[in-house]
Design brief:
alpha/beta, Rossmann fold, 6-stranded mixed sheet, binds beta-D-glucopyranose, 28% helix, 28 strands, Immunoglobulin-like
Length: 746
């Protein structure tokens, strides 16, 4: 009996095996075990699939079929691609062919903090946690291409989209970006790193041609993209709207073919930004793989079957059918799209994802808390001591305004968003009295693409009345927390528009100045993704940089203000005192004209400009305080000189000499005092975030090789490290160098 059962089982197993093999046979003529992390296996499957596709199917695969999707090939079991914005959370569902909401009831996500905040954690583990969580949300929603992260360099504080990026330094962006990419992609969801390249302003983003020298391009604007490809292994990249060398970047021969694909060996898919393609021939030959979002005029073309009119649709097919172009480029594009499918939708090992979970909410809160930057705390107003505080006045529109809606394509429909006021109220509960006054009236709208905040911010009072009320409330409080800044409305940190001034809008400077007069215990929290001018800086004892913090904004902020969390974020871009302290503005090179901008400041972006011109910033790159104090020891090198193929290690001891636990970001800058080209005074080449208990000390080590010493030699088209003296500087910020040591490159 037992034997009979065993035999029957064997027979079934054999049959199953045969079926599996046969199934494989149906698809791949030479069945290979498919482990999707096996590049060779994927290559074979790609070639096999390619052979089975018709010309029409191939053309269909390389352009959109709806606002956010492209077709698969049902006949062969190849699924559709579904893209989604974006960098900070999974965008709600829109209609097939319209931007308006589809009205789903199950697409409210967890909003993660904006990438500016993630970068300000200076913590690669946070970047991994972010990517992993976001990738899980994308996967659960059946999206296989995430339109992010955004990593364009912060060139000017007026760029409307800086909040979606990772700051002014190519090294920091590169290091923070790589774990984000890996975290997302481990879910079988491709990242689509954007916007390649030189998309550093919004105003003229469709028409402006960027003129930048090769050295600047390679040293400042390309490293993060290169890291995305070579270290992160990104499966897709999005071209940018602007032009470079007179060609739109989505179809840019030099950027896409020469640099991305040939020089860096990118095997992934180049996706156009939405509506970024303008020419079929360029789209065929210049390295673009997939076209999305090309709007048609709805009259002569596009009234129906708009997608057939895409540059890479019928116009391409017609050229092939007429024998005017071959299919070599088409096959290359399709191979890449197939590869992406095998890594994502056709990867049977990928997990199922999860959506709007408590785990993701906690991740969002953790990242927000770690990214908040304590800019100033001279009178130790922070953390607020609730034992000594009876009344806290919370002032400012940003204390109540929902920030997850607005700002452009990164706008979200969040399952919930804790406002700063709610977060503070919840945290303080009945330990102190919270009184709120609005103080100023800024943006009262609350709607993006049909997602409504549901908040009614209309206020009929005059601005004088609103300010008077706030001053009155502030006067009577023990502590005043002003929460203002920008707000993701047009020209206040939003896609498609640049800011027009460094100043805070809505007369906030006046309000803050008056608040400082009536109450000495004033905390200003600036919510923004950009630097703002602070003419009142000397009158305000405590200043906090809060970013667009996502669903957990209020909880995160309250945690830092009340001292449950010791702040450990550091700035990823320079806060200039005035606009002309920034290189691009000093040289009148931002935003340029409608059609042209020259990056006249060259490599001297951010702190590189401030250092060279000895400009004291309002708050420098790398700056951020703590509620405890860190003491730095001497820095030592493991050798006095190195050769070109050698490495050198620097060691420094950091001690927490305060009374509470905290985290410090230790920064390594390299300086090349004498060079044949004009180099920045120093450049970031390492950073580590260390966690220290009171009295504890840790040894921090940094190992660098010649790449940390090199500049890009445009004539040689290569990186060059010139022999001679170098310096390693250890800093708590770019303007607070604690220790240094010299060494020689032989
Ligand atoms: C933005 C992209 C975005 C795309 C799709 C474009 O306008 O520039 O960043 O991913 O729209 O929403």
């Amino acid at each position: 009996m037992r034997k009979a059962f065993a035999n029957a089982l064997k027979a079934v197993q054999g049959l199953t095996l045969a079926l599996i093999l046969n199934a494989g046979h149906l698809y791949a003529q030479n069945p290979v075990p498919v482990y999707m992390d096996d590049a060779k296996a994927i290559k074979e499957r790609v070639e096999d699939a390619l052979k089975r596709l018709t010309l029409k199917e191939k053309i269909a695969m390389i352009h959109a079929q709806s606002k956010f999707s492209s077709p698969g090939v049902a006949r062969l079991g190849i699924p559709e691609n579904w893209t989604t914005d974006g960098p900070h959370g999974i965008r709600p569902e829109v209609l097939w062919d319209e931007w308006s909401q589809a009205g789903w009831t199950n697409d409210s996500c967890i909003a993660f903090p904006a990438l500016t905040c993630l970068a300000a954690t200076w913590n690669k583990d946070m970047a991994m946690l972010y990517g992993k969580s976001l990738g899980e949300e994308a996967r659960y929603r059946n999206k296989n291409i995430l339109l992010g992260p955004g990593i364009n360099i912060y060139r000017s504080p007026l760029n409307g989209r800086n909040f979606e990026y990772m700051g002014e330094d190519p090294f920091l962006s590169s290091k923070m970006l790589v774990p984000y990419i890996k975290g997302v992609q481990q879910n079988g969801v491709a990242t689509c790193v954007k916007h390649f390249a030189l998309n550093n302003s919004e105003g003229n983003r469709h028409t402006v041609n960027v003129d930048v020298d090769d050295r600047t391009l390679y040293e400042i604007y390309l490293p993060a993209f290169k890291a995305a490809v070579q270290e992160g292994g990104a499966w897709a990249i999005m071209g940018s709207y602007n032009l470079y060398k007179g060609q739109h970047c989505c179809t840019n021969e030099y950027l896409l073919n020469n640099i991305l694909k040939k020089e860096w060996g990118f095997e992934g898919v180049v996706v156009s930004d939405w509506g970024g393609v303008h020419d079929t021939k360029q789209a065929i030959t210049n390295g673009l793989d997939m076209e999305f979002g090309s709007w048609t005029n709805g009259l002569s073309q596009g009234k129906s079957n708009a997608y057939d009119s895409y540059y890479l649709a019928d116009p391409y097919l017609d050229l092939i059918n007429a024998g005017k172009v071959g299919t070599k480029e088409l096959d290359d594009k399709v191979r890449r799209v197939l590869r992406l499918a095998f890594l994502t939708t056709m990867n049977k090992n990928r997990p199922y994802g999860s959506f709007a979970t408590q785990e993701h909410a906690l991740a969002a809160r953790k990242i927000a808390q770690e990214g908040i930057v304590l800019l100033k705390n001279t009178k130790q107003v922070l953390p607020i001591n609730l034992n000594k505080t009876k009344t806290i006045a919370v002032i400012g529109e940003n204390a109540i305004k929902m920030m997850t809606v607005g700002g452009g394509s990164s706008s979200l429909k969040a399952q919930y968003e804790i406002s700063p006021l709610d977060g503070i109220r919840k945290r303080v509960a009945n330990q102190a009295n919270i009184v709120y006054a609005r103080g100023y009236i800024g943006d009262t709208t609350g709607n993006y693409n049909g997602v409504k905040t549901g908040q009614d911010l209309a206020d009929k009072r005059s601005s004088a009345e609103v300010m008077a009320e706030a001053l009155n409330v502030a006067k009577k409080a023990d502590v005043v927390i002003f929460i203002g800044g920008l707000n993701k409305s047009d020209r206040q940190d939003a896609e498609g528009y640049d800011r027009t001034t460094l100043s805070l809008p809505y007369n906030q400077d006046k309000l803050i100045t008056e608040l400082a007069k009536v109450n000495k215990n004033l905390v200003v929290v600036n919510i923004s993704g950009n630097a703002v001018a602070m003419p009142w800086v000397n009158q305000v004892p405590s200043i906090v940089q809060g970013w667009f913090l996502g669903s957990e904004a209020g909880n995160a902020l309250a945690g830092v203000l009340m001292g449950d969390v010791n702040p450990s974020g550091k700035l990823t871009f320079t806060f200039p005192v005035k606009l002309t302290d920034n290189g691009a503005h000093a040289l009148n090179a931002f935003p340029g004209t409608k059609t042209d901008v020259t990056y006249k400041e060259g490599v001297f972006v951010g702190y590189r400009w401030a250092d060279t011109h000895k400009i004291k910033s309002l708050f420098p790159f790398g700056h951020g305080l703590s509620y405890t104090t860190f003491q730095y020891g001497k820095v030592t090198a493991n050798k006095a000189s190195i050769s070109a193929d050698d490495k050198i290690t620097f060691t420094v001891t950091v001690k927490n000499i305060g009374s509470r636990a905290g985290e410090e970001v230790v920064q390594l800058y390299i300086s090349d005092p004498k060079s044949s080209v004009a180099r920045p005074v120093k450049e970031l080449k390492g950073f580590e975030k260390v966690s220290l208990q009171p009295g504890e000390q840790k040894i921090v080590t940094f190992t660098v090789d010649k790449s940390a010493l090199s500049f890009f030699d445009a004539a040689k088209h290569d990186w060059v490290a010139e022999p001679g003296k170098f310096e390693a500087l250890i800093g708590a910020s770019s303007a607070d160098i604690k220790a240094k040591t010299g060494f020689l490159l032989n």
